[in-house]
Amino acid sequence: MKGLTAYVVDGHELRIRPAPVEREWMDDTDQRFAYRCLPLNIANAHGWEILCTTAFSAIWDGRQSLDAVRVRTRPANASPQAISHFGSGTLTFHIPCLFRTEPGIDLFVTGPLNRPKDGIAPLSGIVETDWSPYTFTMNWKFTRPNQRVHFEMDEPFCHIFPIGRGSLETVTPTIRKLSELPDLEQEFKTWSESRNEFNADLSDPASKAVQDKWQKAYFRGVHPTGAQGPEDHRSRLRLRPFKTT
What we know:
Layout: E1 4-8, E2 16-18, H1 24-27, H2 38-44, E3 48-51, E4 55-60, E5 69-74, E6 82-83, E7 90-94, E8 97-101, E9 105-110, E10 120-122, E11 125-127, E12 137-142, E13 149-151, E14 156-164, H3 182-201, H4 208-212, H5 217-220
């Protein structure tokens, strides 16, 4: 899964970067508390973002026809970054390159993760980029009519990461009672009790819980008992940027 190459069509520009952890709405939370959620942080940075090369706005009038979506670029004479291609209130971005992955590796294509946008929602797809000579599109679906949406220059509109083809089909999902694993059940109970106690102590301004602000065991990759978790625990992803060769 090591190789990921973007072959840019001549005459076109591809702006792509490792997805950052930071999100404006997370910055705006009280004491930036959203960054205390490690699963959120890891998801934010789990792949690469493709960025807008021009600023534009778009609006959908509610009809299903192609002309129901209107795009207005800034400046007005700029080439549109997205168009109405499929109808049905869909805004379509063309990706100006062919991605290549290792044999058996697909590309998960979706909208920027944990970046909500009012009035429009990204659609997701999986592309077999180890063989396909076809470009793909990134599509967004308007969620209501007559709501103008704005995309700024260098704003991400697409998020990609490689996945193993067929990997999900090798999974055998099962449901069992937690009590069948007494050691795991005891760890859960230890954590649950400490969590309840911590939350109760938050009402006391002089408590250690207020000083600590949040419990950090999962963030640090340790068990409720303090035992160290797996060596490959990640609290941050550091992806390589695309290089021009």
